[in-house]
TrEMBL record:
Listed GO MF terms: dGTPase activity
GO cellular component: nucleus
Protein name, entry field: HD domain-containing protein
GO annotation (BP), single: dGTP catabolic process
Domain HD positions: 13-150
Entry-linked InterPro entries: dGTPase-like, HD/PDEase_dom, HD_assoc_2, HD_domain
Cited SUPFAM superfamilies: HD-domain/PDEase-like (SSF109604)
Length: 362
């Protein structure tokens, strides 16, 4: 629901899936051009990586992660993942539309989609493990899925983006069956995760965005008994019919059983949103044993009328703040390089083009 705060963020997962498909293809082709013979990359590998990029989000429900992480746990309490549903939807589409595709291809594509989820097969059983890290990297999170949505969301929300994934695509190599990058690209990788953290802080968990998310969740929860929304996850042939338009269905239905849900949606339309009160950054030493809290667990005290200046402790803002914003770097320049230039090209300054070779008479 970010578009209700950032009006430009109206792109869908369809555009994102096309983007991941394109980047996955670009990544596997670059690896093939550099190390194709060494790694044994063939047409089957290229095809399955691209299909995994195209289909990796096929299983998302209405309002994406809100449906999976907020709504379903409240109505049925069972663990469910959109990656699993993506795999089921692939089987359903192939069977329903009689698509001629061999079983090995769909099996590999589904394994790639599940690679970073809890349902992933054991790592030791995979051949060419690096292929499974291109779309959904369960080892370190550096994958083309993030490349696309980070740049796309920054652009759509009007935010600056200092992360440029093209450099990583140009320099990546496979070593020990794992995709690796040059050591000098550590800042680019840092920007990948810092930009993602900025998006979560600024967009995905914006106070108004979260308020709307929670109101949508509550509207769906209140409508679930009547519409049986959660039951759709049991049957792919019904699940594909479920999308964001469920809100319009509730909003326009005259049924009395949906009145509470309709009232919540009307409040969203009128911008009468849940009010943000305060937040608390959970200390790192408590994260491991942290459990969900209830309203009764929360005690908050804050004086908004204070006219005296005060400082906010870093750990009350975020654990992602760097400890220093400045480095002192000592660089070394080898005089031997100038001597090499002099001996090779006859000049001490750096040569930026290939010198002309002397022509020899035949």
């Amino acid at each position: 629901m970010a578009h209700m705060v950032y009006p430009g963020a109206v792109h869908s997962r369809f555009e994102h899936s096309l983007g991941v498909y394109s980047l996955a293809g670009e990544a596997i082709h670059k690896l093939k051009n550099r190390q194709g013979l060494e790694l044994g990359i063939d047409h089957f590998d290229i095809q399955t990586v691209k299909l995994a990029g195209l289909l990796h989000d096929l299983g998302h429900g209405p309002f994406s992660h809100l449906f999976e992480r907020e709504f379903l746990p409240m109505v049925n309490g069972s663990e469910w993942s959109h990656e699993q549903m993506s795999a089921q939807m692939i089987d359903h589409i192939v069977d329903e539309h009689h698509i001629e595709i061999d079983a090995e291809t769909t099996k590999r594509v589904k394994e790639m989609i599940l690679a970073s989820s809890k349902c992933s097969m054991a790592t030791s059983r995979r051949e060419k493990h690096f292929l499974y890290d291109i779309v959904a990297n369960g080892r370190n999170g550096v994958d083309v899925d993030k490349f696309d949505y980070i740049v796309r969301d920054c652009r759509a929300c009007g935010l600056g983006c200092s992360f440029h994934f093209q450099r990583l695509l140009e320099t990546m190599r496979v070593m020990g069956d794992e995709i690796c990058y040059q050591d000098k690209d550590y800042l680019t990788i840092h920007k990948l995760f810092s930009t993602r953290a900025d998006l979560h802080r600024t967009v995905y968990t914006h106070a108004k965005v979260k308020a709307i998310d929670l109101m949508i969740r509550d509207a769906l929860v209140k409508a679930n008994d009547y519409l049986q929304i959660a039951s759709y996850i049991q049957d792919p042939s019904q699940y594909w019919k479920l999308d964001d338009t469920i809100i319009k269905t509730i909003e326009t239905a005259p049924d009395q059983q949906l009145k509470e849900s309709r009232d919540l949606i009307l409040r969203i339309r009128r911008r009468d949103l849940y009010q943000f009160c305060n937040e608390y950054v959970v200390p790192k030493d408590r994260l491991e044993n942290f459990k969900s809290v209830s309203a009764q667990d929360i005690v908050c005290s804050q004086d908004y009328d204070s006219e005296e200046k005060f400082s906010i402790a870093n750990d009350r803002i975020s654990h992602l703040l760097p400890t220093s914003y400045q480095d002192m770097i000592v660089g070394a320049v080898a005089e031997a390089f100038e001597n090499f230039q002099l001996l090779t090209y006859g000049i001490r300054t750096q040569v930026h083009s290939t010198p002309d070779k002397k022509k020899h008479r035949r």
